[in-house]
Amino acid sequence: MGDNPATSVTDPTGRVHGYDNLWVSDGSVHVTNGGVNPVLTILALSFRTSENIVKHG
After folding, report:
1. Region class of 14: left (phi > 0), else alpha (psi between -120 and 50), else beta
2. Rounded to an integer, what distance in angstroms lies between the CA atom of residue 5 and that of residue 24?
3. 30-56 as b/e, with b when 16 or more CB fall inside 10 Å?
4. Would you place residue 48 in the very low, low, confident or very high pLDDT band (cuts 50, 70, 90)?
5. Which of 26, 27, 48, 49 has CB 3.0 to 4.6 Å from 14, enough for a Cys bridge?
6. Would you state the torsion angle of the CA atoms of residues 13, 45, 32, 2, taken in this order, to the nearest 10 degrees?
7. pLDDT digit string (tens) for 9-46?
8. What gap in Å lies between CA 36 and CA 23, rounded to an integer?
9. Alpha carbon 25 to its chain's center
10. Residues sharing a CB contact under 8 Å with residue 41, sequence separation 6 or more, in sequence order
11. Rounded-to-integer distance, Cα 37 and Cα 5, Å
12. Contact yes or no for 1/26 (Cβ under 8 A)
């Protein structure tokens, strides 16, 4: 996730750079897994991404 398409696949909201209707909202946007179970982080990310999909849809 990031602002630069050369260094990230998605923008900060989870939308894939260069595609208007392709979003990623799972653990695959994490470069590395932290030292704890990432379930709550992934759930929060999916809720945030779904809100952005509704706003942009």
Report:
1. left
2. 15
3. eeeeeeeeeeeebeebbeebeebeeee
4. very high
5. 49
6. 10
7. 999 989 999 998 999 988 888 877 777 888 888 899 99
8. 25
9. 5
10. 30, 34
11. 28
12. no
Closest among 34, 25, 33, 26 to 52, alpha carbons compared: 25
| DSSP-derived secondary structure for 6-45 | TT-SB-TTSBBTT-TT-B--SGGG-SS--SS--HHHHHHH
CB 19 within 8 A of CB 25: no
The pLDDT value recorded for residue 22 is 94
What value does the mean pLDDT of the chain take?
A: 89
Overall pTM > 0.85:
no
